[in-house]
Amino acid sequence: MSTTGQKAWIQVWDPIVRYGHWALVAAFAVAYLSAEEESGGPDQLHVWGGYAVGIIVALTVLWGLVGTRHARFSDFAYSPITALRYLADMLRGNARRYVGHSPAAAFMIAALLFCLAATVGTVLIAYGDSGKGPVANARGVVTAQARAEEGEGRSESGAVRRGEGGAGIVGDLHGTLANITLGLVILHILGVGLASVVHRENLVGAMFSGRKRPGDES
User: Fold this and answer.
1) Contact predicate 176/165, CB 8 Å
2) Are 119 and 181 in contact (CB under 8 A)?
3) Residue 178 CB: number of other CB atoms within 10 A?
4) What pLDDT score does 135 carry?
5) Taking a C-beta distance cutoff of 8 angstroms, is the pair 208, 18 a contact?
6) Higher model confidence: residue 162 or residue 178?
7) Following CA atoms 134, 16, 115, 125 in sequence, which dihedral angle do they give, to the nearest 10 degrees?
8) Domain formed by 10-212, architecture
9) What span, in angstroms and rounded, lies between the C-alpha atoms of 11 and 206?
10) Which secondary-structure segment (H or E) carries 166?
11) Partners of residue 138 on adjacent β-strands
12) Which runs of consecutive H residues, i.e. helices, occur in 43-132?
């Protein structure tokens, strides 16, 4: 009886996929919830949370190229038409079940990775222009030093100038991308809930244990 129960489950998600997924959830939550206020600069917790997100996204992309079967992007490379059909079938309650990522999940993963990478990239640019962070450029360092020498960093007019121009635009883009990412996360959670109901399986639990029952595909 126990042997039959064991055969009813297969290992799908490897430890890197599982731990990476939950680490990314935690890092994004920390970065988003500790975002800078309008009246101040970025909190260090926000900065380091962003660094963590960037590192995890980079490792996820790498593992998607060289990782285990269901972790590879090639395992869930579906066309937009296939994804739309899957979503339509999902809403009707008769969608085909996949052991790995479904077509809809594949596009959600791509969107999340892109938005997360872009969100981190914009804040690195904005932070670097002030002469800080791993991508601080020479122009940003010189500008920061000049402002410090002239006392502009302490003046209200200097603060206004720093909020305008390219840095301000990049900062606004960073906030917009972060909010778009949050929206995608909410859609992802709703999609996981719907798929769990339609396919009658605990997809959240599967991301903890890595185990799922065999799928319909060969």
Assistant:
1) no
2) yes
3) 22
4) 52
5) yes
6) 178
7) 0
8) Up-down Bundle (1.20)
9) 9
10) helix 165-199
11) none
12) 44-66, 80-92, 103-129
Torsion angle in degrees (nearest 10) through CA of 29, 64, 16, 204: 60
- For the chain, what percentages of helix, strand and coil (3-state, to nearest 5) are there? 75, 0, 25
Rounded CA-CA distance 174/178 in Å is: 6
pTM confidence score: 0.79
Amino acid identity at 2: S
211/102 Cα distance (integer angstroms): 16
The predicted structure's pLDDT at residue 109: 97
Which residue, among 13, 42, 45, has the nearest Cα to 29 in the 3D structure?
45
Which tokens sit at 13? 């998600």
Compute the distance between CA of residue 105 and CA of residue 173 in angstroms, rounded to an integer. 26
By the 10 Å C-beta count (0-12 exposed, 13-18 middle, 19+ buried), 103 is classed as buried
Identify the three-state secondary structure at position 11: strand
- pLDDT tens, position by position, 100-125: 999 999 999 999 999 999 999 988 88
Could you tell me the residue ranges of all domains in the chain? 10-212
Q: CA-CA distance, 51 to 190, in Å (whole number)?
A: 27
Is residue 10 within a helix (H) or strand (E), and if so which, with residue range? Answer: strand 10-11
Count Cβ atoms below 10 Å from residue 44 Cβ, excluding itself: 9
Contact call for residues 217 and 97 (beta carbons, < 8 A):
no
Q: Give the number of other Cβ atoms within 10 Å of residue 14's Cβ.
A: 16
Q: What is the largest CA-CA distance in the chain?
A: 79
Residue whose structure tokens are 């209200």: 156
